[in-house]
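Handout, page 2. Input:
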Amino acid sequence: MKNDLLNETIFSNRRFTVTASDIRTRSVYYPTAETTGRVRKDLLWFALAIDGLLGWAFWLYFDLWTDTEKLAFVIVMIVALLIGTQISFLEVNAKGLAPRMFVTHSRTARKVFEAIIEARSRRADGRSRHFGEGEAGFDLQLGD
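Output:
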């Protein structure tokens, strides 16, 4: 029963597989008990900075830009914002292993992050039922 609980797949796609016992990628295996995760939205902040700078230049020199340049400004601002909102960094750390950062779609990063939380809680629940103690060090965090 316990092994079934630990080996049940919580999340799986082509890049990530999360079970209560481990987190696997194509090249790295992380034991869930030792793993922490973090979702980072660095590209969103970068896109907002680009949009602010371009918006300021657009407003300041509006009368000097041609219609084609104005359109290019708007397109670059929209594309930067779309990329910033759709792409996230998923940082996975485990004791004894080098931290890894994966560039992935924001929804996938959020799903893997939630699956890590679920895996850690299942593992802690399994330990508390079978061994009498829960798991300490629940160190998952959601970055900006």
